[in-house]
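tool_log.txt
---
The assistant was asked to compare two proteins side by side. It first ran the structure predictor on the initial sequence, then on the second. Raw inputs and outputs are pasted verbatim so the downstream comparison step can read them without reformatting.
(1)
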Amino acid sequence: ISLAGNFWNLAQPVFAIKGQQPNGTNVVYFLNGTRRIKVNRDNNTVIENITTATAAYGRPALFEGSWYLARGDVINAVRLVIGNGAGVDEAALVSIGVTANHFATIQDESTAKLARVRVQNVMDLSPDGTDWTGADFEIGDTSFYVTDLLESQGELVVIRPDGPRRFDPSGVSLPIQKFVSANQQTSVNEGANSYSHGTFVYWVSLSGLWRIASDYIVPVGFEADPQFFST
């Protein structure tokens, strides 16, 4: 989809949510920083462009038929249903009463759960998107915020400016890659816009594009080609 350049703040991550309204209109939501842009995919026109000055969107997740939109540590997260039987999207996004920086889904033994990251580096799980009374666990220390939250092969891959970590539903963690030179001047958006697909996680870092497979991490960007500089 081609849109005017002034729609985007490329210093912030961009997330896309696709769906179809009951009237048959194919839509896509773009979440970019504090902006929520709804586009008609059939004719490439903007349906709405909403800015919430204090709520920067994190990674959304589809859980139990609804999209959960993370809006930071201050503004409560919301639930979005694309199509409510009236031919349009749900008239008002439904607050779920808790804050979240990012969402992801994970299978916790016999129960599908929604995971959220909140307050910089704290994670917890909910069986229904409403009950968040389960035990919290930390993701690294509070030096850095989590910049992305992904699911791959039954584990959560947490992206932080000081490197990605793997977590199981019990909170057991293993750093996949740790920077020796991590410092407080590291970009707060380092690692945002990472991506998971099947058995692979693609970590987008200022140092390049990396592919994570289980315990292995290798550079895969064009700059990793030994012939890059001579080319």
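(2)
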Amino acid sequence: IRIAYDRFEQFQAGVKRHAVKIDLTVGIDDSGRFQAVRNHLVLNGGGRINVSSYVAQVAAIMGAGSYDFPLADIWSRAEHTRSIVAGSVRAFGSEAPLFAIESMIDEIAEARKIDPIELRLRNLLQPGWSIVTGAPKAPPGLGDICKRALAHPMWRGREQKRAAHAND
């Protein structure tokens, strides 16, 4: 027996991604070093018991991203609601906190008039360091990726391109 859903049927029957309410604050000093993060996450787990509690655990573990924060206040929980069932779809809970922290870094960089990649480089965890929530190692290679992105012609020439197309 094979069950084949079309796109609409899959949407109706498939497990959905968690909706997440995020309360995020990042403290930064005058030198551009992160000092503190406060990240509270509430995931909508839907109406049935699923893997929501585990997804919430991963969301909290990733609450500071791959950045060095001397102080952290991070927690998450999954709430049982009347919504449709939610569970792990992709990235198992890490996508919402990571998108939020990366977006916050972009906003900080813009407000401080600092290059966003430079700001990330100043605050990245070094290989072998533990992340703020206690996971044993920072992901390797992030510094190299940031340095390559910083040197790429598309990044270096973005302001000129933006200015050239401002009146389009």
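---
observation on (2): The chain is about 40% helix and 20% strand. The mean pLDDT is 87.
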